[in-house]
Design a protein that fits this description.
By secondary structure, the protein is of the alpha/beta class. Helix content is 24%, strand content 29%. It contains seven helices and 19 strands. Strands 1, 2, 5, 6, 7, 8 and 19 form a seven-stranded mixed beta sheet that branches. The protein is elongated. The model has no long low-confidence stretch (mean pLDDT 93).
């Protein structure tokens, strides 16, 4: 596609927010494209999603596929291209990828977030050799073995439950006195016999010879600061992927999330944002899709009321 083919909107990101935006952009008959280096987003890491209305007990990757198929049904065009640069071009926006350039009247940013790292010695060394960030992806490697999960959120609890289906023993290692998972998840964790929680503790080093064999704790557990582990799954929060938005002046909050109003407009006219990259407090599959749909509606409204955006 060249600059001669002016789009109504470019959707950056192919997770649930991006698919939600694409679905409604299609229904609004907007000339649009979804650009992303991969598909599905963080929902791909979810083992079982049981809180999406009308589709109970579904794997995260299957939910993403269903919503993608729905979006494609209404004419969404998905291109696996990595966006490298955004520019304001006269009255429009130029989107440069690793393969092409696009000129568009509006942009919907749905780039999501990525998991934080612990930043401890050994973390990078054993990445993929005992250190992981996705239980759904790698739990099968630890059948009958001992693993740990670092973190205390809903997603950390879900990681532990997935691992418990394969591993002999699962430790949840959390820096505070109680994990903060929602009550239903907390009950499931407490009822799972091969999960044990180690509270008020941090991992300060990952050690091994070629691959992870144990971690060093800042508090003793059973009389030792060493905890033998075959695998360690890190789930200590996320970093919003806002680098692209920043280049065109989109405002962020103190957590680096894109600030949006109730209709998903940013401070830059013609630029909208949706999903985990935004400052919405309750980050869920259903809210991501809803935000995407609102962003598409506002982009549609903008295109049809601003013949010459400024």
């Amino acid at each position: 596609m060249t600059q001669n083919n002016l789009l109504d909107t470019v959707i950056i990101g192919a997770g649930l927010a991006g698919y939600g935006a694409a679905l409604y952009a299609g229904r609004f008959k907007m000339n649009s494209v979804i650009l992303s280096r991969d598909t599905g987003g963080t929902i791909n890491w979810a083992h079982i999603v049981d809180n999406y209305p009308g589709i109970p007990n579904i794997e995260g990757i299957d939910l993403a596929d269903k919503i993608k198929e729905h979006a494609l049904k209404f004419g969404a065009e998905l291109k696996l291209e990595e966006v490298e640069n955004l520019q304001k071009e006269d009255n429009y926006f130029k989107v440069k990828t690793d393969k092409s350039e696009y000129l568009t009247k509006t942009i919907i940013i749905a780039t999501g977030r990525e998991r934080k790292k612990l930043g401890i010695p050994g973390e990078e060394e054993f990445q993929g050799n005992g250190v992981h960030t996705c239980a759904v992806c790698d739990a099968f490697l630890y059948k009958g073995k001992t693993v740990g999960v670092v973190g205390g959120s809903d997603s950390a609890a879900k990681e532990a439950l997935v691992l418990a289906e394969h591993a002999k023993k699962v430790y949840i290692i959390y820096r505070k006195d109680k994990i903060r998972a929602e009550p239903t998840l907390y009950e499931k964790v407490m009822e799972t016999s091969n999960i044990e929680i180690i509270n008020n503790t941090n991992i300060i080093q990952a050690k091994g010879d070629g691959r992870l064999s144990h971690v060093i704790l800042d508090n003793q557990y059973n009389g030792s600061e060493e905890l033998p582990l075959d695998g360690l799954f890190i789930d200590v929060g996320y970093v919003p992927l806002t680098e692209l938005a920043r280049t065109i002046g989109v405002e962020e909050n103190e957590n680096g999330e894109i600030i949006v109003d109730k209709m998903n407009c940013t401070n830059v006219r013609g630029v909208f944002a949706a999903g985990d990259v935004t400052d919405i407090e309750f980050k869920q599959a259903i809210t991501a899709v809803a935000q995407g749909s609102k962003a598409a509606y506002m982009a549609f409204k903008y295109v049809n009321t601003n013949t010459k955006p400024s």
